[in-house]
């Protein structure tokens, strides 16, 4: 059976150090994997491998059965939100999101950009230069940029970083709606409560490996934070 | 639907030009450098020892080469801030489109510098440009294509290193030599009032280098993006 997102033995080394080691996972439409782990566990590297931004040392990442690297059709289905904004500070909010829409071949880029900005509640700042915005507003624009082409797979690396409560609530609402619409999500976060809020699966990464993975309904939310701390040696 | 190679390249070039138009810092810096360089050469020139017509082509191409290098330094810097490059790599466009877009923006940037440097050299050295001016601009543009192709590739390679400012000229200059040589020879002949036909073999060399460099750099670019 073909899964929407599939990683098979994904491994990535930098020099002699293995940042990600033999990660295998599969996610179907409407699923959300919350990925927890201490700093340096390999979460961001795994996400960059899944996005096709890094070449794996071994293993493969596929979207709907297609190898991600080198396949433009597969890449078009992916949205990636990082803790870095991936925006051009000198351009306006609208120009940044419209550029993304055009590069993804969105049919009506101007309207699509306006829609994405409206969903992230930053349409009123559309003509502001990105560099003039606060970190939180830049993060909202970054999310709008990643969403403008309506990706079927969304990879989120600490998306809540810098967001105010309204921004965080808007994002949670949007993620839940996307999941309801059949999108597949991978959410990297340090905040266990936030992660479990939208997740259908939870996993813990430690020293490059997925050391624990279970379905959301199988885990005890109350004791998960304690179990996590125990697993990673008290480091969060 | 995925945009075509040329359309994607145009989107990227337009974005780079918009950023430059907003900030204007790089263009102004390069322009000031070029004008100061031309002026320095002028004041160091002994008109009794070397005729203007012999010196001017060298001045023009030395200044143009180094101004071009300076402008190419900034090309990928804009992509590194906030990892904007990742957004380009994630988009379903050919990686060659990123190169072509960047190269096109760099070419237009360099052409803007030419518009100032060629008349400045002509004015200071009292060159008999007249009807040769359009041909001189055409040669400069042909040479700029090769320089920009090589420079854009090496700018991408050097951008992620700590020694970017040193690496770019070190890598680029050996490849610039045949282009600068051909361009300087052509310029000399034209300024000396020789017929265009006489300069044609050098122009053919320039065009051949353009084709080779543009093709080779476009095809190589995707591989240097591998992390």
Number of strands of chain B: 0
The first-to-last residue Cα distance of chain A is: 36 Å
Domain count of chain B: 1
The biggest beta sheet of chain B, please?
A: none
Order of strands across the main sheet of chain A: 6-7-8-3-9-10
Q: Mean pLDDT across all residues of chain A, rounded?
A: 90
Could you state the oligomeric state of the chains shown? heterodimer
Principal-axes shape call of chain B: globular
Most extensive protein-chain contact, per-chain counts: A-B, 29 and 26 residues
Number of helices of chain B: 9
* Category by helix and strand content of chain B: mainly alpha
User: What's the gyration radius of chain B in Å?
Assistant: 18 Å
The helix/strand series of chain A, from N terminus to C terminus, equals EEEHEEHEHHHEHEHEEH
What structural category do the secondary elements of chain A indicate?
alpha/beta
Strand-residue fraction of chain A?
Answer: 25-35%
Q: How confident is the prediction overall: mean pLDDT of chain B? A: 90
Low-pLDDT regions of chain A: none
Radius of gyration of chain A: 17 Å
Distance between the termini of chain B: 27 Å
Lay out the secondary structure.
The complex is a heterodimer of chains A (236) and B (227).
Chain A: E1 5-14, E2 17-27, E3 32-36, H1 43-51, E4 58-63, E5 66-67, H2 72-75, E6 78-81, H3 93-103, H4 109-119, H5 135-147, E7 153-157, H6 165-180, E8 184-188, H7 192-198, E9 201-206, E10 209-215, H8 221-231
Parallel strand pairs in A: 3-8, 3-9, 6-7, 7-8
Antiparallel strand pairs in A: 1-2, 1-4, 4-5, 9-10
Helix pairs in contact in A: 3-4, 3-5, 4-5
Chain B: H1 5-23, H2 25-44, H3 52-73, H4 77-80, H5 84-90, H6 95-124, H7 132-159, H8 164-191, H9 196-224
């Amino acid at each position: 059976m073909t899964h929407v997102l599939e990683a098979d033995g994904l491994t990535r080394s930098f020099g002699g150090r293995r940042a990600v080691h033999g990660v295998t996972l599969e996610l179907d439409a409407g699923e959300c994997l919350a990925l927890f782990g201490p700093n340096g566990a390999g979460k961001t590297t795994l996400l960059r491998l899944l996005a096709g931004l890094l070449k794996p040392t071994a293993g493969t990442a596929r979207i709907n059965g297609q190898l991600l690297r080198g396949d433009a059709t597969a890449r078009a289905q992916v949205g990636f939100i990082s803790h870095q904004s991936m925006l051009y500070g000198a351009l306006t909010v609208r120009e940044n999101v419209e550029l993304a829409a055009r590069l993804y071949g969105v049919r009506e880029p101007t309207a699509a950009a306006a829609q994405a900005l409206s969903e992230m509640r930053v349409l009123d700042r559309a003509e502001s230069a990105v560099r003039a915005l606060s970190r939180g507003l830049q993060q909202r624009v970054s999310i709008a940029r990643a969403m403008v082409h309506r990706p079927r797979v969304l990879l989120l690396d600490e998306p809540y970083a810098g967001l105010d409560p309204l921004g965080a609530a808007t994002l949670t609402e949007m993620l839940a709606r996307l999941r309801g619409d059949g999108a597949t999500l991978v959410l990297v976060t340090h905040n266990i409560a936030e992660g479990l809020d939208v997740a259908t699966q939870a996993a813990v990464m430690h020293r490059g490996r997925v050391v624990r993975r279970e379905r959301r309904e199988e885990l005890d939310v109350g004791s998960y934070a304690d179990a996590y701390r125990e697993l990673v040696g008290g480091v969060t | 639907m995925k945009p075509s190679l040329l359309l994607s390249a145009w989107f990227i070039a337009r974005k780079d030009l918009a950023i430059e138009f907003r900030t204007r810092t790089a263009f102004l810096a390069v322009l000031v450098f070029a004008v100061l360089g031309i002026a320095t050469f002028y004041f160091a020139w002994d008109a009794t020892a070397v005729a203007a017509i012999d010196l001017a082509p060298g001045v023009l191409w030395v200044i143009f080469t180094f101004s071009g290098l300076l402008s190419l330094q900034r090309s990928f810097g804009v992509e590194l801030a906030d990892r904007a490059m990742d957004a380009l790599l994630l988009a379903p466009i050919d990686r060659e489109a990123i190169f072509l877009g960047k190269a096109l923006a760099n070419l237009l940037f360099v052409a803007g510098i030419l518009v100032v440097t060629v008349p400045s050299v002509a004015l200071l050295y009292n060159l008999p440009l007249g009807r040769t001016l359009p041909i001189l601009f055409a040669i400069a543009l042909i040479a700029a294509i090769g320089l920009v192709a090589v420079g854009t590739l090496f700018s991408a390679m050097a951008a992620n290193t700590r020694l970017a400012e040193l690496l770019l000229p070190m890598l680029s200059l050996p490849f610039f030599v045949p282009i600068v040589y051909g361009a300087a020879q052509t310029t000399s002949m034209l300024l000396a009032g020789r017929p265009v036909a006489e300069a044609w073999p050098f122009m053919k060399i320039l065009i051949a280098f353009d084709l080779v460099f543009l093709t080779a750099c476009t095809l190589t670019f995707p591989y240097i993006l591998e992390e």
